[in-house]
Specification:
Blueprint (H helix, E strand, L loop, with lengths): L14 H12 L6 E5 L2 E2 L18 E4 L14 H80 L10
Antiparallel strand pairs: 1-2, 1-3
Length: 167
């Protein structure tokens, strides 16, 4: 029963403008539209930018059942009306809960992907820092070996001198 539709509006547009665009494209009346993004119902007077909605995001449209306001509700029996109302409420609740849990799974997956990418970035930084440290250690070791070699050569040239440098 779910399908994807593409609607394009400016990022600074208000939610009500988006609802009007949905009315034009999908013929869903304004009073039946409920827009949900990141588990929150969008308020008509706020802008899409205030919800941090960017290009190519998925906003859930819940089209509530049409209410015929010209006719009062049928009164066959009070129990039947209550059952119908509770069935409608349960269906609406289940639909909303399922959609919100799907959105939460998508958000967790996004968070995991972001954490994984930052983890990999940190590993790359650690590897590059480790390479630099290893290069510095090799250079220091080479300098120490060269210094020791010079001292040994100096001792070989002057074997009997009383040099304070003693290795």
């Amino acid at each position: 029963m779910s399908r994807r539709n593409r609607v394009q509006v400016c990022q600074n547009a208000k939610v009500i403008d988006l609802k009007h665009k949905i009315l034009e494209d999908l013929s869903v009346p304004l009073e039946r539209q409920r827009l949900i993004f990141m588990g929150k119902q969008l308020k008509d007077n706020l802008t899409l930018h205030s919800y941090k909605i960017k290009e190519d995001v998925c906003i859930l449209l819940v089209a509530n059942r049409a209410q015929n306001r010209s006719q009062p509700p049928r009164r066959t029996s009070q129990g039947q009306d209550q059952n119908q109302q509770s069935d409608d409420d349960l269906e609406s609740f289940l639909f909303t809960a399922l959609n919100e849990s799907a959105q939460m799974r998508r958000n967790r997956r996004l968070l995991f992907q972001q954490n994984a990418s930052s983890f990999l970035r940190n590993i790359r930084l650690n590897i590059s820092e480790s390479r630099e440290a290893i290069t510095q250690n090799i250079a220091s070791t080479q300098m120490l070996l060269d210094t020791r070699k010079e001292i040994e050569e100096a001792k070989a040239i002057q074997p009997n001198s009383s040099d304070p440098i003693d290795c």
